[in-house]
Automatic annotation (TrEMBL):
Residues 8-36 form the Flagellar basal body rod protein N-terminal domain. Keywords: Bacterial flagellum, Cell projection, Cilium, Flagellum. This is Flagellar basal-body rod protein FlgC. Residues 88-133 form the Flagellar basal-body/hook protein C-terminal domain. GO terms for cellular component: bacterial-type flagellum basal body, rod. The basal body constitutes a major portion of the flagellar organelle and consists of four rings (L,P,S, and M) mounted on a central rod. The rod consists of about 26 subunits of FlgG in the distal portion, and FlgB, FlgC and FlgF are thought to build up the proximal portion of the rod with about 6 subunits each. Belongs to the flagella basal body rod proteins family.
Length: 135
């Protein structure tokens, strides 16, 4: 742990938002994919975070990534009998991904990432100015 805990906290936020951006990108990339089997269709992924409050006796504070979970939403069933991967009844299955919601998540994660970068830059500037006080 550094003497400046703000870098640890902001760094954990950067890692968390980076993971969030990657999962959103994966969801958007697979939003239009289809499968002939409902059990094999892509499932949207979402990261799960927890705030680490950090007290005097603990090592760090910040954001902890608990993991990435898959959506339990049912796949969209589309009747496309001409599709070569359709099942015997003529259906294909697509992931239940709301692209507008994913874009909002992407913008939110991007802004949070930018905010954490600004926190680190400000903390760095303040530390440098503090070191220059004695000159």
């Amino acid at each position: 742990m550094s003497n400046f805990r703000i870098f640890d906290i902001a760094g954990s936020a950067l890692s968390a938002q980076s993971l969030r951006l990657n999962t959103v990108a994966s969801n958007l990339a697979n939003a239009d994919s289809v499968s002939g089997d409902a059990s094999k269709v892509y499932k949207a992924r979402m990261p799960v975070f927890r705030a680490e409050p950090g007290t005097e006796g603990t090592a760090t504070a910040g954001v902890q990534v608990l993991g990435v979970v898959e959506s339990q939403a049912d796949a969209q069933k589309r009747y496309e009998p001409g599709n070569p991967i359709a099942d015997a009844q003529g259906y294909v299955y697509a992931p239940n991904i709301n692209t507008v919601e994913e874009m909002v998540n992407m913008i939110s994660a991007s802004r949070s990432y930018q905010g954490s970068v600004e926190v680190m830059n400000t903390a760095k500037d303040l530390a440098l100015r503090t070191l220059n006080l004695g000159k």
